[in-house]
Amino acid sequence: MSVGKTLLDRPKFALTLERLCHQLLEDWGDFSNACIIGIQPRGTLLSNRIHERLEALTGKKIEYGKLDITFYRDDFRMPSGPLAPHPNEIDFIVADKKVLLVDDVLYTGRSITAALAALQHYGRPASVELLVLVDRRFNRHLPVQPDYYGITVDALDEAYVKVRWQETHGEDEILLFDKKP
Q: In which element (H, E) is residue 140 found?
């Protein structure tokens, strides 16, 4: 793999996650009548950490689920190979709840639009807010903006943002490449 520019190293990565959790606590209080939904697969790595830290900070159980959007995407019929859907892990109804939707990188907005459609199968939420670790402000195809974001990256079309996680890559960091490695 080619070497990318490090946007966030491990210490800043951890600080960013902590800041996001404290922002959420300021706005959401103790998460009463609220839940966290991670978008599979990469959004769940972030949502696992956010959920765990928020439960530690609030001292209470917060409803948490994982949502697969594979068949809600507008590009799932593309001939790029077989799809690998993940099982939904939501054992509660989101009707009339405040939902925190979590993904790793916001780029075109298509994944978020698919997630909003998939979420409707679990009821009609009172509201939905979006948390992403990386907001790629340019190249948005749909009018989707995050309510909470870790960092903003202004990158051109061919640039690629890679989030590496301790759980899967052995290290927490965010890298920027000139093009997809």
A: none
